[in-house]
Amino acid sequence: MRKLPFYFACAASLAFAGCIMIQPSRKQVSLFDGKTFRGWEGDTVKTWKIENGSIAGGSLEETVPHNEFLCTRKEYSNFILKVKFKLTGHEGFINTGVQFHSVRLQNPPYEMTGYQADLGDKYWASLYDESRRNKTLIAPDSALVGKIVKRNDWNNYEVHSRNGHIQLFLNGTKTVDYTEPDKSIPQKGLIGLQIHGGGKAKVFYKDIMIEEL
User: Fold this and answer.
1) Which of 4, 47, 63, 70 has its CA 20 to 30 A from that of 181?
2) What is each CA distance from 172 to 20, 82, 98, 157, in whole angstroms?
3) Torsion angle, CA of 15/19/20/25, rounded to 10 degrees?
4) Distance CA 81, CA 79 (A)
5) pLDDT tens sequence across 22-81
6) Cα–Cα distances in Å, from 103 out to 45, 54, 107, 151?
7) Is-contact 186 89, C-beta < 8 A?
8) How many of the other CB atoms lie within 10 Å of CB of 157?
């Protein structure tokens, strides 16, 4: 093979390095500024409030009458989503979850349909199909969950989704690894925060970060 002159080789090396350096890198983006509901929509009159830099939903004084969701105005497809949550409650069904690849229903208008990274007793860090197949698609071992969940305290939750491959992580431990077999199920949609109806329950969310893939 014929060798390039030294200065041509240097120029080629620098150009190649320059191409590597200028490639855009993915970065995490905050979905909640800690002060306003900018970028979100839902019942911010009664159900959802901002308290101490967190999104708070539900009530410990009154039974939440039905499911409520605070959801993004933007749709997302492939991403890594990170949130911190704290679920509290003392009566009835104490449950919450993070919707993704979801849409709002028209009837009733407060409901959503799509995947839910579920949270609450018997559902911790499992994958549920909300208002569609209406079933848990995959759930972690209860003994594992009992070791990693921090009840009535802050927990780290991650949702990884890429082209139908979904993984959930609770406090750094993987609890779900699921590949969607049904190619008709949408892999794009809104992200939503739920407070489940039927209990005196209150959930808090903060540090909501997304990295689009």
Assistant:
1) 70
2) 31, 11, 17, 8
3) 160
4) 6
5) 555 679 999 999 999 999 999 999 999 999 999 999 999 999 999 999 999 999 999 999
6) 21, 24, 12, 29
7) no
8) 20
Tokens of 139: 């759930």
Structure tokens, 72: 């993004």
Residue 107 token pair: 């009837």
Q: Is the bond into 108 cis (omega within 30 degrees of 0)? A: yes
Distance CA 103, CA 113 (A): 6
Q: What is the DSSP string of the chain?
A: -PPPPHHHHHHHHHHHHHHHHHSPPP--EES--SS--TTEES-TTTTEEEETTEEEEEESSS---S-EEEEESS-B-SEEEEEEEEEEEEEE--EEEEEEEEEE-SSSTT-EEEEEEEEETTTTT-EEEETTT-EEEE---HHHHHHH--TTS-EEEEEEEETTEEEEEETTEEEEEEE---TTS-S-BEEEEEE-SSEEEEEEEEEEEEEE-
- Give the pLDDT score at 18: 52
pLDDT digits (tens, 9 = 90+) for 117-148: 999 999 999 999 999 999 999 999 999 999 99
Residue-wise pLDDT tens digits, 82-91: 999 999 999 9
pLDDT at 7 over 80: no
Give, rounded to a whole angstrom, the gap between the first and last alpha carbons of the chain. 40
As a whole number of angstroms, the distance between CA 152 and CA 169 comes to: 18
